[in-house]
Design a protein that fits this description.
Length: 319
């Protein structure tokens, strides 16, 4: 497999964006045409991204700026990527309707196709539970689970059909997904697979992605309403905050290790940081038009954002 891996060096650019003193922003230009959709950074600092348009998995070493492109096979169009408990990147591979693992050492690609009877499900986002099983969503109206140890795969129909999109695991091990078309979130029973719908207070809000803070509260990016909302499973209560600007479009949400909430706002072409304690927003606009940050992920001290419209990865380093 190593013979099919492409390598190159990319430009490292310190962005001229006004930022608080405790944040340093740096951009890494990627090979053109990849369209980085989702991104994941491992404990070792290596960054993996789904190059959706070119059907590859990208590997960035931030220390050197070197990028490798790993082909995922004919017809590939990866959407989501995460680093699993085994240290390997795992992908929801929408082009071939499969869950894919890439060995971080050998670059060997292993795939688990969805049952043929399911047809095309528009695979979206993955998350691991605390039992080492990978859960995933499909916008066509499904969610599912793969146990890599036993190779058992289960796929369930979403209770309201089309829409399952973002999915995340809380520190306690609970799994929640967001339904974009269904405008709700749902909690999944890890044993039975049953999904319990939880209604946000704003009607037709377009819940797109979810993430948990350190207390297990669920943060939701609402595409239609432009809100970032928080659901507290302990109380059943909700709170919502509208992003600044005239026409916010909240795409992705991520909570960093300091419990600050990050949202990608397509309406403002910006990354937004929200402090739940002060209820204040900070906006970091991209200097490139239509950057289109699809997803946000990170590790302690770093928040990574893939600019799918600019073929870049941007990191916000917290001092």
């Amino acid at each position: 497999m190593r013979g099919s891996v492409l390598g190159c060096l990319v430009a490292l650019v310190l962005l001229p964006v006004a930022a608080p003193a405790e944040i340093a922003i740096q951009a890494y230009a990627l090979p053109a045409g990849g369209g980085p959709h989702d991104v994941a950074v491992g404990p070792d600092g290596i960054v993996w991204y789904a190059a959706q348009r070119s059907g590859q998995l990208g590997r960035l070493d931030p220390a050197t700026g070197k990028v490798e492109l790993i082909p995922l096979g004919a017809g590939a169009a990866p959407h989501g990527v995460i680093v699993g408990p085994d240290g390997a990147p795992w992908l929801t591979e929408g082009g071939t309707n499969a869950i894919v693992r890439v060995d971080p050492e050998t670059r060997q690609v292993k795939r688990w196709p969805l049952p043929e009877a399911r047809g095309y499900v528009n695979l979206n986002t993955p998350t691991f539970d605390r039992r080492g099983r990978i859960w995933f969503t499909g916008q066509s109206g499904v969610y599912g689970r793969l146990d890599p140890g036993t190779r058992e795969m289960r796929v369930w129909d979403a209770p309201r059909g089309r829409g399952p999109y973002g999915i995340a695991t809380t520190p306690e091990g609970a799994v929640y997904y967001a339904s974009l078309a269904g405008s709700h979130i749902a909690r999944v029973d890890l044993d039975t697979g049953a999904a319990t719908i939880i209604e946000p207070p704003t009607k037709d809000q377009g819940a797109r992605r979810v993430w948990s803070d350190s207390r297990g509260r669920i943060w939701v990016s609402e595409w239609n309403s432009g809100n970032v909302s928080r659901y507290d499973p302990g109380t059943g209560g909700w709170r919502s905050w509208r992003l600044p600007g005239e026409r916010p479009r909240a795409y992705a949400v991520y909570v960093d290790d300091r419990d600050k909430v990050w949202v990608s706002d397509w309406g403002a072409n910006a990354m937004v940081r929200f402090d739940p304690e002060t209820e204040k927003f900070e906006v970091f606009p991209s200097e490139l038009r239509r950057a289109n940050v699809r997803q946000i992920l990170g590790r302690p001290g770093e928040v990574w954002a893939p600019e799918s419209g600019a073929d870049r990865l941007v990191v916000y380093r917290l001092k």
